[in-house]
Amino acid sequence: MNTLQQFLNQRVSYHVHELSLPAPNTQQMTDILQAAMSTPDHGKLKPWHFLVIKQTRIEELISLLQTAWQQSNSELDPQRAKRLASYLKQAPSIVLVSAEINEPSPISKQDQVFSAAAACQMILLAADALGFGGVWYSTDAVELPNVRQLLGLQNKHQPVGFLVLGSPISKREKARANVSDHSFEWLGAANVSPWGETKSANQERLK
Ligand SMILES: Cc1cc2nc3c(=O)[nH]c(=O)nc-3n(C[C@H](O)[C@H](O)[C@H](O)COP(=O)(O)O)c2cc1C
């Protein structure tokens, strides 16, 4: 196995409590985000928007999210707001990744969102390659009242990932699933009758 394969196979997420300063500096952050420019991109739309939130702004972000949570009439669990605040409090830096949706476009919105999600993974890998670590968190809090506006997001932005980036406090390894549980070989349509019934399995585990 070559070094790059080892790097990919050993990638792990580092949750906020496993990260500390330093966060990537501005040049390093630019280098990390540059890697996302090589993300697969249907129609060359570059449907990506990266909002960097430096550590010095995180307190402000937390209070903004907490206020939004209180104002929201939805049935959102207040414990989630607390958990989110305690996550973010420890974050060395955050990149909010959004799909920047081109509409109208012959390229589906779904493909554009997938591309932005793939950009998240490019960013996490690039951060790892520079010796940093990170984690991908959900962005549902961005849909709380006023949050989009206060973050400067427009209607065309669809958030896909809150990436927390920083320095792992200690490196760790993780046992991974066996790929053979997830990989199959298609054995052809001949095993399916014309009315759609499978006569015998037309997939088997990839050997
Ligand atoms: C779209 C997406 C959203 C996620 N949101 C959260 C989240 O809100 N909270 C969380 O603990 N993990 C979340 N995760 C999972 C972590 O990013 C991470 O993948 C998981 O903890 C497993 O760690 P690993 O990547 O080292 O296997 C999310 C992952 C994805 C792809």
Automatic annotation (TrEMBL):
Q: Where does FMN bind?
A: 11-13, 42, 136-138
Q: What is its EC number?
A: 1.-.-.-
The molecular function terms of the Gene Ontology recorded here are:
oxidoreductase activity
Please give one Pfam family short name.
Nitroreductase
What's the superkingdom here? Bacteria
Keyword annotations from UniProtKB, A to Z: Flavoprotein, FMN, NAD, NADP, Oxidoreductase
- Residue ranges constituting the Nitroreductase domain according to the UniProt record: 26-166
Comment on bound cofactor: Binds 1 FMN per subunit.
Write down the required cofactor(s): FMN
Where does the record place a coiled coil?
Answer: none
**What family is it from?**
Belongs to the nitroreductase family.
The name this protein carries in UniProt is Putative NAD(P)H nitroreductase
